[in-house]
Amino acid sequence: QKEVEQNSGPLSVPEGAIASLNCTYSDRGSQSFFWYRQYSGKSPELIMFIYSNGDKEDGRFTAQLNKASQYVSLLIRDSQPSDSATYLCAVNGDYGQNFVFGPGTRLSVLP
Amino acid sequence: DGGITQSPKYLFRKEGQNVTLSCEQNLNHDAMYWYRQDPGQGLRLIYYSQIVNDFQKGDIAEGYSVSREKKESFPLTVTSAQKNPTAFYLCASSISGSQETQYFGPGTRLLVL
């Protein structure tokens, strides 16, 4: 059974700080990795995806992937109160397999 | 505007009743998915379809049924066999299956009377 694990939180950071969200996965064959943001009562929205080892930056967001250690992280720089949400990590394997979602980490950015 | 629509936003089910949740997309995506989300938990896959007239069971298909008669539509029926249907139901689509990004509709919240 493939698993994706995240700390449930809440993770609290002050406004302007860097928030670091982590995700580990069990399937070494996993190929693609996604971060979604979900506000309370709303559906998930895609923030970033990453396929290759290393860092990928998009504005205030940086995704980091380390396949050898089987973890993927999301850094949010200059955190804003509007970033307060649950962040879902999703992992996909080879062709024909489906996403496995982690339980999500709840982030709270304090003004 | 391209996107995924789900209806209704809220749905109430009586004991022993079947109810159908609608999901429509105009993104020209081949693959569509249904997930269930319980409070404080991640998404669990109910059914998915990678092509019209074909669909596959996910991890928690018991008590649910789907159809895929049109590329744009993937309705989910919650049958009376699903004993604990109260949850947030999310429909998603992707260009094709496997590794493509999935985009989500706004969701339907199902409550039992």
Would you kindly provide a written description of the structure presented here, covering whatever features stand out?
- The complex is a heterodimer of chains A (111) and B (113).
- Chain A has strands at 4-5, 11-14, 19-25, 32-38, 45-50, 54-58, 61-66, 71-76, 85-92, 100-101, 105-110.
- By secondary structure, chain A is mostly beta strands.
- In chain A, strands 2, 4, 5, 9, 10 and 11 form a 6-stranded mixed β-sheet that branches. In chain A, strands 1-3-8-7-6 form a 5-stranded antiparallel β-sheet, with no helix packed on it.
- In chain A, a hairpin with a 7-residue loop joins strand 9 (85-92) and strand 10 (100-101).
- The N and C termini of chain A lie far apart (40 Å).
- Chain B is mainly β.
- Chain B has strands spanning 4-7, 10-13, 19-25, 31-37, 43-51, 54-57, 64-66, 76-78, 87-94, 103-104, 108-112.
- In chain B, strands 2, 4, 5, 6, 9, 10 and 11 form a 7-stranded mixed β-sheet that branches. A 4-stranded antiparallel β-sheet of chain B has the order 1-3-8-7, with no helix packed on it.
